[in-house]
Amino acid sequence: MLDIKSIRKDFPILTQQVNGKPLVYFDNAATAQKPKVVEDAIIKYYETINANIHRGVHTLSQLATDAYEEARAKIQNHINAKHNHEIIFTAGTTFSINLVANGFGSLLKAGDEVVISALEHHSNIVPWQFACERSGATLKVIPMNEHGELIMEEYDKLLNENTKVVAVSHISNALGTINPIREIIKKAHQFGAAVLIDGAQATPHIRPDVVELDCDFYVFSGHKVCGPTGTGILYGKEEWLNKLPPYQGGGEMIKTVTFEKTTYACLPHKFEAGTPNIAGGIVLGHAIDYLNGIGFDNIAAYEHELLEYGTKRLLEIEGLKIIGTAQEKTSVISFNIEGIHPYDIGVIVDKLGVAVRTGHHCTQPIMDFFGIPGTVRASFSFYNTKEEIDILVEAVKKAKMMLS
Ligand code: PMP
Questions:
Q1: What residues form the membrane-spanning segments (predicted)?
Q2: Same domain, 243 and 345
């Protein structure tokens, strides 16, 4: 059982008033709020050990390097990667996917196929379109049903010996669907394809085990797991990271440079050109510690309660339709009210202190599938409460009254 009252004290932002009302923050799928330990760790870094890493012999540089490498080890341990050089620090999920897709852009050739799914965020679509355009490979899409679940029989039909990459999200940001990634990975491997899992929406709720999953790449963003913006992780199996070409050139990623030829550094530095977000990486380690302190089993169980309660309460509103009714779902509720534009609902509930996201959620193909311009999305985190869901429901009722 989580002590939510005490957990909420860890998040100073939650005590705020917005538009004269207590803030109800239900935009967690866009970014998570930060606990005080994370804020304190940022200040402590800059006040005590700020220096560039992997370069200086001086003490501060060594301390900063040690702290950065300690954070890498924490993340390795958190996702159960075999080697710490399989953990690449990036600027976020988008950066991580671009790094991998760009690499495949030079490994793929005409006739090869890349499989993504109908549930992808734009950042797991567009980089693969770039890669296919560059290489002449073809992009294929696993379709979904009206519940927002991937149709696995169709996936089976897409796979063949030309399939070189399968890139799918662990959890959909727009609908909350949890995809059957174990099965997806296993089947792709039967054809020798590499599998990238976009874990941006999963990592706030689930502790992934990359060895057990046997995925080739797993990517996520720091800011969605209570860490700083501009931080992210690319996990890649050693053999795949060795096969991929470097993404950015510059300092840190080289072994030797002459004007004729450059040789590259070993992993993970081959993919970490330039001065990274040092404080961000270190503090991401603190954020992961904080979440593990609460415990992912506790988080998942409580958020499921919020999902069930929120679903039941919102469905009491006449004319409200939930988009995304998958069997396996995380704490995201996307909805629309007949005859009302989602944006208008978002504006009114904001006036009542409730933060939700409205729009296409960077998933235009999902909105096209359902024939809608967008949805209102309420996404719950472990620091939210049922009382806050009641406030949302009242706010939506009020918006409906004003707009109908
Ligand atoms: N994939 C998914 C499923 C997401 O939800 C997001 C963020 N909304 C991204 C990718 C992109 O993450 P970021 O903007 O942090 O790079």
A1: none
A2: no
